[in-house]
Amino acid sequence: MLNDRLSSVKNTNEFFQMITEYGLPNTYVKQESDINNIVNELIDGNTILLLDKIDKVLIVGSSGWKDRAISEPTSENSVRGPKDSFTENIENNTALIRRHIKSPDLRIESFKIGTKTKTMVSMAYLEGVAKEEIIEEVRERLGRIKIDGILESGYIEELIEDTPLSIFPQIEHSERPDKISASILEGRVAILVDTTPYVLIVPTIFFQFIQSVDDYYQRFPIGSFARLIRIIAYFISLILPSMYIALTSFHQEMIPTTLALAIAASREGVPFPSIGEAFMMEFTFEILMEAGLRLPKQAGQAVSIVGGLVIGQAAVQAGIVSQAMVIVVALTGISSFSIPAFNASSSGRLLRFPLMILAAALGLPGILAGVSIIIIHLNSLHSFGVSYMEPFISADKSIIEDPVFRNPWWKINRLPGYIARKKIVREAPNMKPGPKSDSTEKDDNS
Amino acid sequence: MRKIALGLILILSLLQTGCWNAREIDELAFVLSIGLDKTDYGFKVTAEIASPETYSKTPSGSGTTQKAKPFWIVTSTGKTIFEAIRNMASISSRRIFWSHIKVIIISEQLARSNTLEIFDFFSRNPELRLRTLIAVTPGEAEKVLDVVPVMEKNPAIYLEKIIKNKNLTGKSYDIMLKDFIEDYLDPNVGPVTSRIIIDKSKSQPIVKTSGAYVFDDNKVSTVLTEEQTRGLLWIKNKINESVIVVNCPYDDMPVTLEIKKSKSSIKSYLDGEVPHFTINLKVDATITEQSCLTNFNDMEKLSKLEKALEKSICKDIQSTIITAKDINTDFPGLSLTLHSQHRKEWNQISSKWDQLFKDSKVNIAAKVTIHHVSLAKPLEPIKMQK
User: Fold this and answer.
1) Distance between CA A68 and CA A88 in Å, rounded?
2) CATH 3.40.50.1240 holds for B227-386
3) Are residues A50 and A119 both part of a single domain?
4) pLDDT tens across A198-241, in order?
5) Which residues of B touch A265 (CB under 8 A)?
6) Do A361 and B18 touch (CB under 8 A)?
7) Quick one: which of A429, B64, B100, B304 could link to A257 by a disulfide (CB 3.0–4.6 Å)?
């Protein structure tokens, strides 16, 4: 067939045209004449076809990066649910999302950000569900970025945040396709970044960090109960050490008598005041946590023995710290790990130090002041136009429906109004399941 | 730049407070109960301090074989109470900490002289809890604190629990400092406190609660016997789960009845200037033990037993009211009822309350319902069955 066409070609230009249209039928071809674009395409891994006497080139799509196989997510494990996670290839990731959302309304807009890295960054959203203002805002902020390299989605996160100086994260990230697809369905915008499996989700509210995908796959009593426990755990990790300091140093009358005597007994002979002891133990715990992240496998056993035995047991028996303090530190640490998002639990862990200082200086009024400042700050945060403490700000029905108690799947029929356009119905009404009523059974039999 | 400077100044100024009034928990001496006695030139205060070592379950450091005593009694004297307490600091190495006091014991000798100073001190001290129990003892308060408790770790917890057990016996009274001071300040009502005695009949002295003391005009005036205390409990609606023994209406064998629920209300009206009170009692009881052979499943016999219990209740309350009138102290709190139910008239006659109380008439109407006879037939001795 090519021979037939060859015979009809009269000059080089027509030859070039013919190759473009019929020469490489299975691949993506494009004609290009701008030298910058040609170089970019070459760096992208495509092939350049140059023809003598033609001032245009043919770019043939041939980029195939070596990719990691799809494996289990490393940081967000779930008991029930799909176990695939994103990889470092953005085209792979886009394909994974498209497998969940097969609607033509799913739009993906791409940018190349980073003058030297030219990393491909894509925005994914559902047209008609996500709010126009949010989509526009994301587009505008991504376009504003001028930096030499983007190596991870964390760079983008810090460059487009509303309040970069705050401890609380205002953008969520995830490496699970099901979580990203669920967010897109709710009307959020996902930002995929090449060379990293972590995808950003905007806009974000504080209570998203307390939720985990498992809550939605298990039945709703389990999900609601788990969320309640996580909220309590967040508070414990924030204020337990400061409450311990305040109560045992300033307000001993508020502790029940036998508990006060037990704490006094455990502090017998300890040389440091309880304030110093608390700071020391908390710092030691933070050092242990940091070391644990970088444990080589061979040293893993030794370090855990060192951490547990030395600090826990031997220090108490030597009389350097008191047993009550070890319990407080352990409880705080475990509570901070029960929150699924690392960035949110880090905010709790970081904030407990200023609260401890306030408690050591002023007692319970100090903690009151500190927590008030935190609450005021939280209420002033925004994420792409949405208040950080939604739905408690707009105070509509969705307070009961989402952050803490999860409505069963047969009752969720509206999208959260602060994120998506209002009055979008997700589910038909009367979806509650149950056995068939008696009258219809009789009809079937007759 | 200015914002940062301002912020830093604010935060650093917070830290200028230093440790404010922080006290380490292991430099406090937890006082669990105090006893107040009268001496020739002032007061003697006995404090029972809990020793924390005995509260740790694991021995810290190398185990010592010597068992430490869980409490420590400290005595000191002074011209006033507060001076006596401060003098304790010369004996005790740790700062005396009042906030965990459970019981305050006052000796009768001290309570019969002027008690104004004691309660003034208690009201002013911010560390003292108003939920502390108050008791008066006929002997010396120091001896009560010296009694080694059998089951509890320290005498204070033991005392607190036996005072609070008034529910089960119905023969003693308990009162917290806050209620006591309320009654103390009212010129017409006399406060009542628990009474603790030391029973020396056994080889080891034991502490018991029995009866109550009535305060009149800032001093202890009378002792209430156990029946009168029970009458007082009926009036104040504090009887719950206690046990009353009445005689069976057909043969004079005792029957034990347990009070499950009781509700009392006092209605008053004024006839001219003479107040009339009606005390209404609605009581639910069950039979827990009987020695007579009557089968109380018969409604007629049951109603006779109910009447017997009503009579016994009325007798107790009457003896209380007669005692109150004799000593002319309104410790049952009838003036409070009159005040709340007839405020306008009360404002006019309150100055003459002493005289009016003597003339007032009190009616008692008790209604007892006995549920749960529990057995279909009372147990009979085997011989009679043949």
Assistant:
1) 7
2) no
3) no
4) 999 988 888 888 888 888 888 888 888 888 898 899 999 999 99
5) 52-56, 60
6) yes
7) B100
